[in-house]
């Protein structure tokens, strides 16, 4: 048997350990190299994900079209995040009771707060991945769908900002 990667001929014993399943045969040495490449790629992806998380925590989000003390160095583009939640039977029940008694529906409010946090976090990650360090002109909207679902839609312009030089510099 010959390795499809390196062309080395393998002995009969290699046939006993080979699980071909229709795939070309790869010798143990080439298989080890392949596994090492996959592991290295996994580690690189984990490092990149961590780097993006760190950058995302630093992304500034504002409803205004500028950030005091900064100027827009580069406009990257528009980004939006859509987050759909089901109201759920318990939220609806507690909301209905709250309506009857004129109270707030904390269960549903908590779902909306969670949706807002997740959407904001997602927007920051998307911004960081595209090289933005700020999102300006944020607009947050809610939409109601059939089937007791509510969508939170968060839009903004991704920008790269830089601190303005201090006066007299």
From TrEMBL:
It comes from the Bacteria. Transmembrane segments: none annotated. It holds the Pfam family YbjQ_1. PANTHER family: UPF0145 PROTEIN YBJQ (PTHR34068). Belongs to the UPF0145 family. This is Uncharacterized protein. The lineage of its organism: Bacteria, Pseudomonadati, Planctomycetota, Planctomycetia, Isosphaerales.
């Amino acid at each position: 048997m010959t390795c499809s990667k390196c062309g080395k001929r393998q002995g009969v014993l290699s046939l006993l350990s080979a699980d071909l399943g229709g795939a070309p045969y790869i010798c143990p040495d080439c298989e080890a190299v392949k596994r090492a490449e996959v592991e290295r790629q996994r580690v690189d992806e984990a490092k990149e994900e961590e780097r993006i998380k760190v950058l995302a925590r630093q992304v500034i989000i504002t409803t205004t079209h500028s950030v005091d003390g900064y100027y827009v160095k580069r406009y990257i583009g528009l980004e939006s995040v859509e987050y759909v939640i089901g109201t759920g039977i318990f939220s609806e029940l507690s909301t209905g009771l709250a309506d009857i008694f004129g109270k707030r529906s904390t269960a549903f409010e908590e779902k909306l707060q969670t949706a807002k946090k997740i959407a904001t976090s997602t927007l920051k990650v998307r911004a960081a991945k595209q090289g933005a360090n700020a999102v300006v002109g944020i607009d947050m909207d809610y939409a109601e769908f059939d089937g007791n679902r509510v969508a939170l839609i968060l839009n903004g312009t991704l920008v790269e900002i830089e601190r303005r030089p201090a006066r007299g510099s």
